[in-house]
């Protein structure tokens, strides 16, 4: 019982840790001001986009990525050139990179002096569609959120298959596996025919057993009462005849054997 309580405690701590991590990651992501999941496009500008008018295209009023309190709006209202942005202080937009006619990168930065600025965000325009490039913190938060969500789903799935009983302890109960085994088509095993050697050997054994143990009943027709079989026994010879046969070999062995004739002597021939 101690091991089971320790297991419960460890399992509960792991689940609480994953949930706290999931909550902290979710709290770090601000969904209200998050513009990473949206895009913007004005189809009327797409055919005529070039490095000279891409900032005017980005400064459209319907563009949710554009801040209307920036220095670009002040320059536009005063009908000044973009070179005057270096002499101002505040938020501004510049064209960072251009790869005609498909790709344009615009940077939002905080101007502090003519030689010092702090990047705030980057936006890329692909085929006229504007997207916000994610920063490093957002990328790490997104990856951590995906990982924690997968771990949480794995814990929930594992807990649904876990069972416990005081007498048995812990075990896994998978319902899908039982259903798959039930739905599997049962393949009948083909019975292999016996070989000639096997049939011959079985017949020999059956005949041997029948000769040693003859049947005592036989049934003429199915459903009829079995009839006992009369087994004819050979008549045993009387005991006196057996004793006489035993005595005859004894008398024959006690009688003296006839003397054997010696071989003829060899005589010398006379010349």
What is the β-strand count? 9
Helix content range: 25-40%
Question: What is the makeup of the main sheet?
Answer: 5 strands, antiparallel
Q: What percentage of amino acids are in beta strands?
A: 15-25%
What's the mean pLDDT score?
77
Shape designation: rod-shaped
**Terminal Cα separation, in Å?**
128 Å
Question: Segments where pLDDT lies below 50 for 5+ residues?
Answer: none
Radius of gyration: 55 Å
Number of helices: 7
H/E element string?
Answer: HEHHEEEEHEEHHEEH
Neighbour order of strands in the largest sheet: 1-5-4-3-2
| SS-derived structural category | alpha+beta
What this model shows, in words?
The chain has helices at about 1-30, 55-60, 70-75, 135-160, 175-185, 195-210, 240-255; strands spanning about 40, 90-100, 105-115, 115-125, 130, 160-165, 170, 215-220, 225-230. The chain starts with a helix and ends in a 17-residue tail after the last helix. The longest helix has 27 residues, at about 1-30. A hairpin with a 2-residue loop joins strand 3 and strand 4 (about 115-125). The protein is built from seven helices and nine strands, in the order αβααββββαββααββα. InterPro entries: Mediator_Med6, Mediator_Med6_met/pln, Mediator_Med6_sf. One of its GO terms (cellular component) is mediator complex. It comes from Pagothenia borchgrevinki.
Question: How are the SSEs ordered, and which strands pair?
Answer:
Blueprint: H1 2-28, E1 40-41, H2 54-58, H3 71-77, E2 90-99, E3 103-113, E4 116-126, E5 129-132, H4 136-161, E6 162-165, E7 169-172, H5 175-183, H6 196-212, E8 217-218, E9 227-228, H7 239-254
Antiparallel strand pairs: 1-5, 2-3, 3-4, 4-5, 6-7, 8-9
Helix pairs in contact: 1-4
Keywords: Activator, Nucleus, Transcription, Transcription regulation
Family: Belongs to the Mediator complex subunit 6 family.
Organism: Pagothenia borchgrevinki
């Amino acid at each position: 019982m101690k091991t089971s309580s320790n297991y419960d405690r460890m399992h509960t701590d792991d689940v609480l840790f994953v949930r706290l991590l999931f909550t902290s990651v979710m709290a770090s992501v601000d969904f209200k001001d998050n513009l990473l999941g949206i895009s913007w496009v004005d189809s009327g500008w797409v055919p005529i986009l070039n490095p000279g008018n891409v900032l005017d295209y980005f400064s459209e009023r319907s563009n949710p990525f554009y801040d209307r309190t920036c220095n670009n709006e002040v320059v536009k209202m005063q009908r000044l050139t973009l070179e005057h942005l270096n002499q101002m202080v505040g938020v501004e937009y510049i064209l960072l990179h251009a790869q005609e006619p498909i790709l344009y990168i615009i940077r939002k930065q905080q101007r502090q002096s003519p030689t010092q600025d702090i990047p705030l965000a980057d936006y890329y325009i692909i085929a006229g569609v504007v997207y916000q490039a994610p920063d490093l913190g957002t990328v790490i938060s997104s990856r951590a959120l995906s990982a924690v969500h997968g771990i949480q789903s794995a814990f929930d799935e594992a807990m649904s298959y876990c069972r416990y009983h005081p007498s048995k302890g812990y075990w896994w109960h998978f319902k899908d596996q039982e259903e798959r085994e039930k739905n599997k088509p049962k393949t009948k095993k083909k019975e292999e025919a016996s070989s000639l050697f096997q049939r011959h050997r079985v017949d020999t054994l059956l005949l041997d057993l029948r000769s040693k143990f003859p049947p005592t009943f036989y049934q003429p027709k199915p459903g009829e009462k079995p009839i006992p079989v009369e087994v004819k026994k050979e008549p045993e010879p009387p005991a006196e005849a057996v004793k006489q046969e035993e005595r005859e070999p004894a008398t024959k062995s006690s009688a003296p054997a006839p003397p054997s004739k010696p071989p003829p002597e060899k005589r010398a021939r006379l010349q």
